[in-house]
Amino acid sequence: MKRIRIQNLWLNSFTVAAVIATIIVIAMAAVPATKGNTMPKLTVIKGESDTMTIDNKAREIRITATITKDCSKPSVCDWGRRGQAFFGSKGGKAEPFFIFATDINRPEIDKAVKSVGMKASRQLLNKSEVDQRTGLKPTTLKDDYLDGDPVMVVIRFSKGSDIVETAIEEFIEEKIIVDGKEVIKPYTPHFVYHGSGEAISYPSGCVVCPSGCYGGIIADNSVPLLTTSSYFRFNWDKMPAPGSKVELILKSVYGKMEKKSK
């Protein structure tokens, strides 16, 4: 399921659940820690106004961010093509384009992503190769795609008395051109961790990018490198309010588990 809502019915039983959880924690704390009995720890990194929580047990990182809405930028309020990230770190060159912005810096995010077991398998690091491999064409090869472990990108936020968790693509519409006609479709990305932006210290600040862009660390590789043929538009009837805080969850599909050989 892409959308999970915690309804009021759940909230009514929250107190009972909290008591049970507290009893369990106290009981576990009383057991001496050994090599075979160690509680997984959460690592919290604090920025100026945001935090990043690294959860190795869940194989995910959770980063707070602010919603921004600059309608002069592509895809924000109207259809537009873009390579710039939907989510990124403040201070990067692409910051004005971000819809989800955090003050946790990208090097820290990149290290956190690796720490929960995500691995890159195809990076593109030099300009001549980028020029050669850009765009979808009849000669496109598998090596023209960024690649790495798949990543689930989830947005968590408060809506009234509910907590909503929704895949980022649920907020985005996509428009493509088929035989000269416009077709509006669900956005169907395949986000992967490639880490190219950090590998070359590219100062964009981009974290989660569309269009196979190599300037961040996570990209949609359903298309080859820098294929900006699709148009995107955010649905602000679904989006959290501009200026509000949300939590972005970057969850590894594989984590530290051994992947099956292809």
Task: Tell me how many strands there are.
Answer: 17
Q: How far is the N terminus from the C terminus?
A: 26 Å
The biggest sheet amounts to: 12 strands, mixed
Beta content: 25-35%
- Structural class determined from secondary elements: alpha+beta
Q: Unreliable segments (pLDDT under 50, ≥5 consecutive)? A: 1-34
- Tell me the number of structural domains: 1
Shape: globular
* Separate helix tally: 5
Instruction: Give the radius of gyration.
Output: 20 Å
Give the overall average pLDDT.
85
The succession of helices and strands, N to C, reads EHHEEEEEHEHEEEEEEHEEEE
Helix content: 10-25%
Quaternary organization: single chain
3D structure, described in words:
The protein has helices spanning 8-12, 14-29, 106-115, 127-133, 196-199, and strands spanning 3-6, 42-46, 51-55, 60-67, 87-89, 100-102, 120-122, 147-148, 151-159, 162-167, 172-178, 181-186, 191-193, 206-209, 218-220, 231-234, 245-252. It has one domain. The strands form three sheets. Strands 1, 2, 3, 4, 5, 6, 9, 10, 13, 14, 15 and 17 form a twelve-stranded mixed β-sheet that branches. A three-stranded antiparallel β-sheet has the order 12-11-16, with no helix packed on it. It has 262 residues and is α+β, with helices and mostly antiparallel strands. The protein has five helices and 17 strands. The longest helix is centred in the first third of the chain and has 16 residues, at 14-29. Helices cover 16% and strands 32% of the residues.
